[in-house]
Amino acid sequence: MSELAIRRGVAPALAIEGLSYSYPRRPIQAEGGAAGRALSDVSLEVAPGEFVLLAGRSASGKSTLLKAACGLVPHFHGGEIEGEVRVAGIDALETGPGELAAAVGYLAQDPETQVVSTTVAAEIELPLEMRGDEPSARARAVEEVALALAIPHLLDRAVDTLSGGELQRVALAAALVTRPRLILLDEPTSQLDPVAGDELIWLLRRLNEEWGVAVLLAEHRLERCLAAADRVVAMEAAAVGFDGRPGDFLQWSRENDAALSTPAARLFSLADIAPLPVGVRDARQTLQRTGIAHPPQQASRRMRDPHPSAPVLDAKNLWVELGETEETRDVLRGIDLQVRPGERVALMGRNGAGKSTLLRTAAGLHEPVAGKLSVGSIALLTQNPSDYLVRERVGDELPGDEGMAALRVVGLEHAVDADPRDLSGGERQRLAITIALAGRVEGEQLPAVVALDEPTRGMDRARKEDLVALIGTLADSVAFMDKEATKATPGAAVVVATHDVEFASAFAERVILLGEGVVIADGPMEEILSGGWYFATEVARVLDLPGIVTPEQGAAVLKESLG
Amino acid sequence: MRSPFAYRPRRGPLQDASPGAAVAYLGAIVVVAFLYLNPLVLLAAGAAATLAGLLAGARAAVRAALRMGLGLALLVAVVNALVTSRGETVVARLGHWPLLGRVDVTLEALVAGASYGLIAAATIIAFAVYSACVDPDRVLRALRPLAGRSALTATLVSRLVPVAAADAARLRDAAALRGPGAAAVGKAPLARRLLAGSLDRAVDIAATLELRGYSLDAPRARNRRSRSRHDRRFYAVAALVLVTAVAGKLLGADDFQAYPTVAVGFGPTTIAVAAVVTLSGLAPWRRRAGRRLVSADGTKAARYGGKSSRRRMKEGVARV
C-alpha cells in the first residue's frame, strides 16, 4: 500500500480477523483461555480516526493484542499465530515492526523500556533517522511533535533526568513522530499522577480529533478514559467479550463482570438510576434530568479519633536532598508528620512530589540532611516487587517451617516449588510483601510501619480489592504471619504511596497530599478526596459533596434524595 | 540516582571522538592487559585506563571501577592462593580445609593471582571509562551497519551496562529491605537475578528499537556528528600501543614467571612497553584553549593563549 493511501486512511486503521496466538513459553496462562493461548479467535476492526478503549482484567490478552497490531507479535516474540492482521492495509504478519512504524505507533506500559537514546531530541528523532529522512525534515518533525505534546522545553534534557510522566510523553512523541494512522497504548497512565494521567488522555483525544489518529488504548482505570472513547472492546479470557458503545459496555459489565465497571456506574447502579454514565459530565446531566442536581449535603465524616498510642513514624522539619554534587536538589523540604499504630494512610501527590523519597528515608535508604525522623521498625515494599525475588524457587525465599506458614497465610503454599518469575503479578506482590515482613511479625518484632510504594501499577480492580483486604489485615492485625496466634498484637501503621484515588478511597482513613516536597494537605480521606478536582474520586466529582467519595456513600445520598 | 558508569555528555576529545576511535583506543589498552602477565605492564595498562578516565572527566566512573577492580583483584589473589599449592615460598600454613585439603599459602600463588586480578581490574577500568565517556546513541548508530538485523545485539552492546547498573541499585535496595526471616541474599543469587533481569529489560528495549525501525534497510541518514578531529589521535595511539605491545611481547617484554619462584622481568623492553602504555593514557588530554580577550575599552577582540595572554592581561586587557 502506498504512503498516500496510508495517509488518506482508505483502509481501516486496524483489521484483525480470526487471530489466535500462543507465546513460545507462556508464563501465565490466560485465565480461562483456550489451552496456552494468549489470543483466541479475535476479530476486530478500528476505523480511521476512531478512539477505541480496550478493557479487560489482567492477563485477558490486551497487551498481546496490541503487540500483534504493531508487529512485535509474532516477529519479535515468536510463537504460533493464525489469522490475519492488517494495519492501514499492510499485512502485519508479513511485515516487520520497523516497516509498520510508518503506519502504527506503540507505547508500552513501562516508559523506562520505551527510550533507547540518551537525550530527548535524539529519542524523538531516532525513528526518522532510521527511515533515512534528511536532517532538516527530522528537525521540523521533532519540533512539531514536541509542540503538539507540549514538551519543547525537554528536548535538550537527558532522558534519565525525566519524571515518569515526562518520560511517557517523550515515548509518545517518538511513537507519533512518523505521523502514524494508528497509535496503540498499553496502560499509559499506570505510572502517572491523576493530573498527568488526565492530561495524557485529553491529549490523545485532541490528537485523535485534530490529526485523525486512530487510538487503541488498553486501560484498567476506565473512569479516566471512558468518556473520551468512541467505542469499547472488552477482552475476556483471550477473546473479545464485548464490542460496542461505552454506555452499552457499562450495562454489559454490570451483568457480566462488575470488576470492569466504573465508580460512577456503580454509584448509579446502587442508586437504581439509569442510564449508567460514561463520565462525570454525563452523570451530572442525568442527575439534573432526574431532578437531583443538588443532592442534600451531609455532615462531613470525621476520621476516627486519633490513636492514643505514641506515633510510630514521627518526622519533624525533615529535609532530604537527592542527586549528585552538581545536581543536588531538595526533594523533601521541612516535612512535619506523625503516623500512629493501625492508621491506614494514603500518601498522594504529583510525580516527583517526594512520596517515594519519604518512604525510602523512613526505611533508611536515604539520610536526611536536616530535621528529625524517628521510625519504629519498618517493612517497605518498593515499586517493583520482582526486585525482592532473587531465588529460583519460592520456598527458598522463605525457608523453614515459618516460611511455609507464611506462604500458607498469603495463599502461596501451592507454589512452593515454582520459580518466582513464573508467578502472576498479584502472586509476586504477595510473595514480596511476605519477604519484606518475614521475621518482623513475631511478638515485639511486629513492624510498626508497613509501607507500600505504588503497589497497584498494572492491577485490575479484583486484584486491588485483594490488596485492600491485605492492608486491612495488616492494620487491624492480630497476627498476619501466624493465624494460630492467640496473643493480640497491635496493628501496623500502613502507609501507601499511590496515584490511584479510587484505591486510596477504598483502603485509607487518612490522606496526606505532598507537593514539591512539602505537606500541602493532611486529613481524613473523605475530606481530602472530595475537596478537589484531580485528587478526588469520580463519585466526588459527580456529586461534589463534602465527605462523599465512594459509590456506596454516594448511592445512600442519592437514594435519600430520591425519597 | 544515576549510576557512576552512566554516560554523561561532556566536551572532551574522548567524548567527541567517534565510537570506533574510542573503542579502538580503550580496546588497545584491554588487549595489552590480556596479552601480558608481567605485573609492571599490567599496572601500566590499569594506570593508562585510569589516566584516560580522569582526563576525560569520568572521575566517578574511575573511582567506582577502581573499587570494583581492585576488590576483584584481591579476591582473585586470595582464591588463587587458597586453591593453588604450587610455589616454594610458603607464607602461611592453614592446615586441612574441607574440599580443599591441605592449604599452604605461597607467595608465588599470591603473585600469580594478583597478576590475573590486575588483568580483570584494567579491563573493568577501561570498560567503565568507555561506559561513562562514549555516547551510547552514537554506538547504536555505528552498530547499525554491523547489527542492523539484530536490535537485541545492538541493545546489549550499547545499553546492557547502564541497564544493569540501574537494576543493581534497585536490587541492592530490595536486598536491604528484606525481613530478617527471609533467606539471606547471597552474592551468587543476586548476580544471577541481576543478569536475568537486565537481559529481560534489554529485550524490552530491543523491542522498542525494532519499533523505531532499527532493522529497516533504509538508506543511512546523514548524521551531524559522524567523525571528529580527535579520531586520528585515538587511532594513532591505539596503533602505537598495539604495535609496541606485540613487538614487546615478541622481544620478551612479558618476562614473568610465578612458579616455582617469582621472577618478574624489569628489562629495558618491559620498561619501554610499560612507559608507552602508561603514556597512552594521556591521549584524552585536552589542550587548554586560549581565552578570548578584549581590550579594556572593549574595542579589540582577539584570541590569545599561554604566557602572552597573561602578559596582555597585565597590559590592561580584560577577559570575557
Number of strands of chain B: 7
DSSP helix count of chain A? 21
Cα radius of gyration of chain A in angstroms: 24 Å
Number of β-strand runs of chain A: 19
Written overview of the protein:
The complex is a heterodimer of chains A (563) and B (320). Chain A has 563 residues and is of the alpha/beta class. Chain A is 34% helix and 21% strand. Chain A has helices at residues 3-8, 62-70, 72-75, 97-100, 120-131, 135-148, 164-176, 194-210, 222-225, 246-256, 263-270, 280-290, 355-362, 394-397, 400-409, 425-437, 461-475, 501-507, 525-528, 538-543, 551-562, and strands at residues 14-22, 39-46, 51-56, 80-87, 90-91, 104-107, 182-186, 214-218, 231-236, 239-244, 313-322, 329-339, 344-349, 370-375, 378-381, 449-453, 493-497, 510-515, 518-524. In chain A, the strands form 4 sheets. A 6-stranded mixed beta sheet of chain A has the order 6-7-8-3-9-10, with helices on both faces. In chain A, strands 15-16-17-13-18-19 form a 6-stranded mixed beta sheet, with helices on both faces. In chain A, strands 2-1-4-5 form a 4-stranded antiparallel beta sheet, with helices on one face. The relative contact order of chain A is 0.10. Residues 26-34 of chain A have low confidence and may be disordered. Chain B has 320 residues and is mainly alpha-helical. Mean pLDDT of chain B is 83; it is low at 291-320. Chain B has 11 helices and 7 strands. Chain B is 61% helix and 9% strand. In chain B, strands 6-5-7 form a 3-stranded antiparallel beta sheet, covered by helices on one side. The radius of gyration of chain B is 24 Å and the shape is globular. Chains A and B meet through helix 4, helix 5, strand 15, helix 15 and helix 16 of A and helix 6, helix 7 and helix 8 of B.
